[in-house]
Each structure stands twice: as C-alpha cells, then as structure tokens.
Amino acid sequence: MTDKSPLSGAQIIESFVKTLPGQPGVYRMLNASGDVLYVGKAKSLKKRVTAYTQPEKHPIRIQRMIMQTVHMEFATTHTETEALLLEANLIKKLKPRYNILLRDDKSFPYILITGDHAFPQVLKHRGAKVRKGEYFGPFASGAAVNEAIAVLHKAFMLRNCPDSVFAQRTRPCLQYQIKRCTAPCVLKVTQEAYAKQVDMARQFLSGKSREIQDYFAAEMLAASERMDFEAAAGLRDRIRALTTIQAHLVKGLDNADIHALYQHNGMSCVEVFFFRAGQNYGNRSYFPRHEKDEKPEDILAAFITQFYTSKPVPKEVLVNVAVNEKAIIEEALKTRIILPTRGNKKELVQMALKNAKESFERKRATDASQGELLEGLAEHFGLESPPERIEVYDNSHISGTHALGAMIVAGPEGFQKNAYRKFNMDKDVKPGDDFAMMRAMLTRRFQSLANDDTAVRPDLLLIDGGQGQLNAAVQAMSDLGVSNIPVVAIAKGPDRNAGRERFFIPGKPPFSLEPNNPVLYFLQRLRDEAHRFAITSHRARRSRAITSNPLDEIAGIGEKRKKALLLHFGSAKAVAEAGVADLQKVDNISRTVAEKIYNFFHDGN
User: Which of 95, 101, 27 is nearest to 66 (CA)?
Assistant: First the structure.
C-alpha cells in the first residue's frame, strides 16, 4: 500500500478534530499497518491536532508523518502533567518512528542491606525490589556497586555470604582472617555488636561518612592509649577505606543527577552522572534517537521525561542546556531542573559535558569501523551501497521437535536486539525438514512486505546454510513477489572449520573469502549471533514444554479439576489414555466435560 498524499492525511486528521475536546490529553498517529508513527501530548487536544491539518506549515519530516497517517487514537487526562507522564510511558513502550527516543534503557544496580535475617547481608541488587531490606542507589554500573561494597566490607566488616552458606558454617572463612568480616556465622560477634556495624554502614550510605570517620579516629586514639596496637591498626585500615570515598564527596550536592547533552552533526550523546549522599555513584552514556533538526532543548526535555518514567527521581537534575517545558516536567517528576551558571555545580556540569563529548567520539570511532565493514560487505557481495539493515536467519530443532526459527538484525550501530524475532514452526512443517522450515520462516517474515510497501525492508538477507537453504529462501520470496533484496547463504567449509566458509549467491558460483579478511570475521559474528539466539530460544521453549501440563490447554479445566484428574489417574499421560466413562468417575467431571477432555486428546474422533 502506498503512502497517502499530504492532503489525504490532513483530511483524515481533520475528521478527528471535529469531535475532540479542548482538554489535556495524548494523541497517537498511526500508519496503514497500524504502527504508531508519533505520540504527542497537548494542553488542548483540539488545538494541537488542528495544527496538523495544515501540513505546509510544518518541516518536511512532519509533512511526511502527516502523509502516512491514516488513523489517530486519543486519551484525555485531567492535567497537562498527567499527559506528559502518559506520553513518556507510551513513547518508551511503542517506540514511534517520529519521536525522540531514549535507547538502551537498562536497569541500574543498587546496594541492598537485607532485612530478613538476624545478621544482615550487604549485596548487589538489580531488578524488582521484592526482598525485605534497605536499598541504596542507583549506581551507574555493576563496577561502581562492587567498589562501594568493597569499602563497606573493609570499613564495617559485614558478611557477604548467602544465607545458605551462613547456616552451614562451622568455622570462620577467609573473609574473617583478612578482617573483612566479623564472622557472625560462628558467633564471633554478638547480634547487638553486628547491628551496630550495620547501622554505621547505613549511615555511611546515607551521607554521614565524616561522622563515622571521626568516630573511628576517636576509637583508634583510645586503642593506642591503652596500648592495644592491633585494634588501633585495624581501625586505621578502616579509616583509610573511608578516606577513599571521602575524597570523592561533593559539597552542596546531596541527591542529584547531571544530564549533559553533547551534539555534533545532528547526533547526540547524553551523559548522566548520579550523586547520592554527596557521593559520585558513577555515570553512563546514552545516545537518543532523533531527527537531525531537533532542538537541544526538546531533546533533553524528552530524554529526562522518558528516563525517569521507571527510575527514582532525585531532588535536583542539573543540565547544561535549557529544557523545554521545564515547569511541567518539574511538576510531573517532583524535582528541580537547574541550569547552573557558576560555582561548583557549573564545574560538575562541565565535567559531565566533557565526558559526553568523549563518549560521543568513542562511539563515532566504533561506528566508523562498523561502517568500513559494511562497505567491505557491499563490495564482496556486489551490493549497490552498504546495508543499513542486515537480517540473519537460522533454525533449531531436536529430531524435528520444537522447531524454531530465529531472525537477528544488525546494522551500522551493531546488533539491534529489540528487532530480533522468533518463529515457532511445529505446525508449519514436517519434522526435520530444514528447507521447509526456512521457506516457512521467510514466508511469515515477508508476508507483510508483500502487502504493504511501507513495511520494514532489509537491505541484505544472510542465511545460515548452503545452496539448499539459499534455494528455499529465494523460492519463498519469489512466491510472495518480493524482489530486489539480496540474499546470501553462508556455509561452513570442509570439516565445518571456521575461516573456510563458503558463500552462495543466486546466479553466481560459490566462493570464499581470505581467512584473515575482517569482513569474514564480521560475517562469522553475525552467523554466530543468529545461532546463539536460535539455540537459547529453542532451549527455553523446550524447557517450558517439559514443565508444561497438557491439561492446562483444555478450556474449562481449572486447577481444582486438574488436581482431581491427576490424583485419580496419576499422570497427564494416563488422563490422555482414559475413556469417557473412566473420566466421569472423577469428582466434578460431568459427561460433557469428560467428552471435552477425551476429544482434546483424540482430535475429536
């Protein structure tokens, strides 16, 4: 289906305007395939959407978006602040083509002091906060957490062993010998004394490191005066551990994040620094997706809003450029956004900006290397230009069972894991027919492309296999009428040795690349990633199948009936082999239900 003209898109949008209210809300613009093109918020939905009915007043990219719009969806909210939060959540969930988009939204690690044991444990935690205890963070990386935990062990001598190991100890471990733990497992310390250690660690993580350091100094002096030099030396080492953190404390910055935006040639990097209790908890780089003509104040506003939809919000957010709609974002996130102009905070923002620039340059260098590989790929395979989207296909099964196909995607920025796809094909092919699996997989992948010109189109297909797999792929695409997509099959060479791969291209004799060719290594990485994804997905599916119960698939068989059937027959297999009369002997199984169960296992015969 081709894109509609700008007038057609504008007319469609105008038809929605007539019924829109003048209150806050969020709107979604969708294309012919049902994909969300753009998510926006508005103080007045009617006024905001009306602006799209005059495409000529917008930049070219917005005109293109209007042209592709065939439907709109709306959600009203009580306030513009609510609309802002809903917009951010929908953007993160739907990843619309025309929105500024935060990428690489990984979770952050925390330090957890457990609260479900008489002798609490200090450990690194990532994910949902379901375990009882106190969480401190977030930290930018696992390395930053490990560094902080190492200080906690040196300074406060808290245990790091899991509860199962703790319960089995009969004598102190090495951590006790090197003075990193007080060995509560064998009661070398009382519960009260250990609780004091935990409390000091809690105070340290809450920003009271100076008070604790002063306390240790007084204790060291007292130990020296009573000539207990061993105890004094231990306290000295604990003070030194705290000093390493004390040196990085930042005055006037208690609970804050820094967001520094660096731009070059229409691309951006946002460096985020985390400060908690005056301590630097590390930093992380982000590369948001946006159009080249987006303004810095809009990029940073969208980034901050999306960033905190699933993360704790600090008291302050320091930035290096003004943020659009600052007041609304502050109200929605319950924070202060500050653009410092002088002093210590200004210096910290400049430090973050310097890091953003360095991260950007490192990524650009990496992307340049990736670009050279893609150029080499185009040269060896006779492509018109370096591919922007490479799709690699592989399949996996065991003696034909649990047949699964896998597709991975790669491009100028490396692997695009959010575009990976799995194909369950038990019902599509006969067991063990690898060629049929490839035909079925590509048929399902390109069915939408055959019916919709706007669907995502790859620049190169890489098939794991030889001439037979290549023929199957070409046949599937030919049957759908999909053309002009280069297809290459990669097969391992003699004895399946890496480095001796053979490549198959339609209409050309098979060939190989030099063993030390960087392009060959790149192709091996692509194939190996597809193989890894296929194997791990197949293994996960097989594990689910092993633990699944066929009775779960029968409509009307709840937990109570399932339990009664298993208690009566002993196994799901015995239930499957039972007749209607036998099934009726089970409590709460009527003739109608018995026939339903019997028909399920006997295909209705």
Answer: 27
